[in-house]
Amino acid sequence: MSKGVKMADEKKLMKALADAILSYDSAAAEAAAKEAIKRGLDPLEAIEKGLSPAIEEVGKKFEKMEIYLPELMLAADAMRSSMSLLLPLIPKGKALSKGTVVIGTVQGDIHEIGKNIVSNMLMANGFEVVDLGVDVKTSAFVDEARKSNAKIIGASALMSSTIGSQKDIVDYLTSMKVRKKHAVMVGGGPTTGEWSKEIGADGWGEDAATTVKLANRLVKRK
Question: What are the start and end residues of each CATH 3.40.50.280 domain in the chain?
Fold first, then answer.
């Protein structure tokens, strides 16, 4: 339990955080995070016990088709609203990270909705995420992965004209003789499991929920 926070108050704060995610309410998520900080709730506990279980539940609902992409996007936005306030307050080295994932949308592609959802769900599941944004050069993926000692590189492509850049990342890692150090997972509308195998990637994420499962498998291998 967080120091200075009564058990009943802690449960109430955790519920407020979780309810904000489950109701897809970014304003409520931000308010709940601010209240948690004000009341002295441990930020790591707030994430692990309040936010993470809620976003995992959202992911399961999406996987079962009980909710659809708009709800998943709103939940991810709410998650981001809380995480942006709580993450900076966690002392360095305290977070129990499963490992670092460098993620981005490949060069020539500016689509980011799917990438953002995956990024938030990875963070909620205990990964440290370095989000490079959109239109990311192949070398930038690899340079950042080496710099941050990332176990996984996640490359998103939403256009058939840009998926070739996912292969470029695998080839670049190989040419730099660091392929074995970094797993590569690919995703995006035009991609498939067959494409992933064809280019020598380590796996394909069909959607946010399956991508998180894939990351959990890959991190154990590295």
Answer: 100-221
**Are 33 and 85 a contacting pair, CB within 8 Å?**
yes
Q: In what order do the strands lie in the sheet with 183-187?
A: 128-131, 100-105, 152-156, 183-187, 203-205
CATH 1.10.1240.10 in the chain is located at 7-89
Q: What is the DSSP string of 149-218?
A: T-SEEEEE--STTTTHHHHHHHHHHHHTT-GGG-EEEEESTT--HHHHHHHT-SEEESSHHHHHHHHHHH
**Which pLDDT tens digit goes with each residue over 117-172?**
888 888 877 788 999 999 999 999 999 999 999 999 999 999 999 999 999 999 99
**CA separation (Å) from 156 to 96, 142, 206, 207?**
26, 14, 11, 11
CATH class of 7-89: mainly alpha
Per CATH, which fold does 100-221 belong to?
Rossmann fold (3.40.50)
The separation between CA 26 and the C-alpha centre of its own chain, rounded to angstroms, equals 17
CA 67/CA 73 separation, integer angstroms: 11
